[in-house]
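Summary of Year 1 activities. Much of the first year was spent building the evaluation harness for sequence design. The harness presents a backbone, in tokenized form, and records the residue chosen at every position. We chose the following record to illustrate the format because it has been used consistently in internal testing since the harness was completed.
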């Protein structure tokens, strides 16, 4: 999902968003798309 998709196709908020708003949304989406390290617990069955 891109900022353009959110601002124009899904919400039409692109009519009101400033360039700074778009940049901030891009930064947010990039941070959300970055995989976060996950801890996996391994259980051994007997």
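For this record, the design step produced the sequence shown next.
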């Amino acid at each position: 999902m891109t900022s353009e998709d959110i601002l124009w196709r899904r919400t039409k908020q692109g009519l009101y968003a400033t360039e700074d708003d778009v940049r901030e949304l891009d930064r947010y989406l990039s941070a959300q798309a970055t995989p976060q390290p996950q801890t996996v617990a391994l259980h051994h069955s007997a």
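The mean pLDDT is 86. Quantitative recovery figures across the full test set are reported in Table 2.
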